[in-house]
Fold:
Amino acid sequence: MSLESKIKEKKATIGVIGMGYVGLPLAVEFAANGYSTFGIDVDEQKVKNVNNGHNYIEDIPNDRFEKCWKAGKIKASTDYEGIKDLDIIYICVPTPFTENKEPDVTYIINAADGIAKGLRKGQLIILKSTTFPDTTEGIVMPILEKTGLRVGQDYYLAFSPERIDPGNKKFSTANTPVVVGGVTKKCTELACLVNAQIIEKVVPVSNPRIAEMSKLLENIFRSVNIALVNELAQLCDRMGGIDMWEVIHAASTKPFGFMPFYPGPGIGGHCILIDPYYLSWKARGYDFHTNFIELAAEVNENMPHYVYSMIVEALAHKGTPLKKAKILILGASFKKDVDDIRHSPSLMVMQIMLQKGFEHLMYNDPHVPEVEVLNKKFTSQLLTKELLEAVDCVFIGTDHSRYDMNMIVKHAPLVVDTRNATKHVTAGREKIFVLGSGKSL
Ligand SMILES: NC(=O)c1ccc[n+]([C@@H]2O[C@H](COP(=O)([O-])OP(=O)(O)OC[C@H]3O[C@@H](n4cnc5c(N)ncnc54)[C@H](O)[C@@H]3O)[C@@H](O)[C@H]2O)c1
Structure:
């Protein structure tokens, strides 16, 4: 049976290497559409969870996961033994950077090595991890070709970047268009066909390098625009009397040529902060300096420090001794309504405060039960009126939907709001300091 027929008749077995924020939703989508899916992950706990029917990604509805699991459509393992039994293999492993902010593609290399051990004729490999142009053809392909099998004839290879936006209630795997660039025409066709089984719109492009670069463009676009509003927010604070949030609202009424981005305490997560560095590193090999990327990183990475100075200024204005001040951080995750704390700006602010000698830090996050900052463990505190009244300052780092801002402002003595989360609160505005609002202390 050809791979094409197997895909169309739902007889193809789908493999997913890396069952994290990207991999598990992808596997569940295929399983829910009737495909047998098999995850491979080095994390034993994730594998146990999958095999025991325990969903660990908040965005996946539990009943949807359970239905797939009960039907025997989703299974997982820590070893690569089963590779030869898979027809399509998606690679969804992390692509972090090193301490010096250089790309770390060892996870991709390890996954490709694992696949190569069981690679057989007729398989399709799709890399989804975000990475610099030429990873698919320059890194993954040579590892697979060591088997003696040839791309486009014996096996197929494509890059198809992930666009999942955790916490987004409108767009999920199924209704977010996906780009596909195969090494050969047949590779593109097959990768488009399999993606089209679970995704409404599939966009083929000429080759993997276009697809790799398009993903970086999307994330750099966000990084640069966020940096722009972060810089203007600081300017509004310096000038006084101009509220950047109202400025953005006003500019957004233009029906064309403008798209709103919002200031914040910095950027976090596994994408916007990291991916631009993948391209600036690659560009350096061509004696090319990606100035926009570097400038945006400079502004965005300074934001936690700027927010720290806002908190210090607010406390000083009230005459509170800094080191003794009790600070409550609201939101530990890097964005609203998710549990992902990777590179979270809230935690970065906490780290700066600890380094500067603040002794009484507490946090609350309904999605994150505990965190570790500078080897210090913190447990999420119950958000009560007593707690709010007992602290000197509340710092809103993440604007989770579950937060009752009226209650928070009513009981907190001082609020530093970096998300404009308190915009609808009318009472007690004199004790709120919003990033970029141009309000002087
Ligand atoms: N999280 C997002 O919102 C998002 C969105 C778009 C793109 N991406 C990209 O997708 C990729 C994956 O991101 P993620 O957020 O899902 O990461 P993640 O850390 O949540 O998941 C990756 C998984 O891969 C596993 N893993 C690591 N090495 C492995 C190996 N050799 N074999 C098998 N499993 C291995 C890890 O244990 C982990 O469970 C990254 O390149 C990221 O940039 C992420």
About this structure: Residues 133 and 213 are 6 Å apart (CA to CA). Residues 17-23, 40-43, 46, 92-95, 107, 110-111, 128-130, 162, 164, 166, 270-271 surround nicotinamide-adenine-dinucleotide (CB under 6 Å). The first strand starts at residue 14 and ends at 17. The radius of gyration is 24 Å.
